[in-house]
Specification:
Layout: H1 7-25, H2 32-39, H3 43-49, H4 53-78, H5 85-96, H6 101-117, H7 121-124, H8 130-148, H9 158-178, H10 183-198
């Protein structure tokens, strides 16, 4: 009997090859041909699943986003139950700081994509900003829940604070990649901003 092809697995395999290529040589150097060589498959197969390089790059970003989201969920699962809203937001910013290979590659790839999209119309057409928008909505929902439960000061705007925290973590991530900050220092700064959002600690904020 012919072997059943797992198309999702093949797409993930190709996306992982692009991630490795971009992390090693830079996103600008990643081509459909070099990704095919890295994946050990034919160029025709890469083109079958991803018609353009822009589409392949965007798919790789989504692939990394899914991995990051799983890691965030793992951080949440490791918290004492029930976890306070402050602790859950701390878990979010901790995941956003590039302090290991996976998170560094994710931040580097997204930043490189954004820079290249400024001059490449094909990349600019990709909805790559949808990832940060999804994160901002998730963070807004979490802060809205905290606001309703009284864990967030009444004068705080959940949507505005979510935008601020996301911008802060993106900036800190770039500083880590360039070596201006260590991951540990970036986590301290990110935690400071989270505490500014929630105000004075209470005995239940673990």
């Amino acid at each position: 009997m012919p072997r059943t092809v797992d198309h999702g697995q093949r797409r993930a395999h190709i996306c992982n090859a692009l991630v490795r290529t971009a992390a090693r040589d830079g996103l600008h150097a990643a081509t459909m041909r070099s990704v095919a060589a890295e994946a050990g498959v034919s160029l025709r197969l890469v083109q079958y699943y991803f018609e353009t390089k822009a589409g392949l790059l965007h798919a790789a970003l989504l692939h990394l986003e899914e991995r990051s989201h799983r890691r965030w969920n793992e951080r949440l699962a490791a918290l004492p139950s029930p976890a306070s809203p402050r602790a859950r937001v701390h878990a979010f910013v901790a995941e956003a700081i590039p302090d290991d290979d996976d998170s560094r590659v994710f931040h580097l790839l997204w930043t490189s994509f954004a820079v290249l999209a400024m001059t490449d119309p094909a990349l600019a057409e990709q909805p790559f900003v949808s990832g940060p928008e999804r994160l901002e909505r998730q963070l807004t929902d979490l802060l809205t829940e905290a606001h309703a439960d009284g864990a967030l000061p009444t004068d705080q705007d959940p949507a505005l604070e979510a935008t601020r925290l996301l911008a802060v973590t993106h900036g800190l991530g770039t500083d880590v990649l360039t070596g201006r900050l260590t991951p540990q220092r970036a986590l301290v700064v990110a935690g400071y901003h989270v505490d500014r959002v929630f105000g004075a600690r209470s005995t239940t904020d673990t």
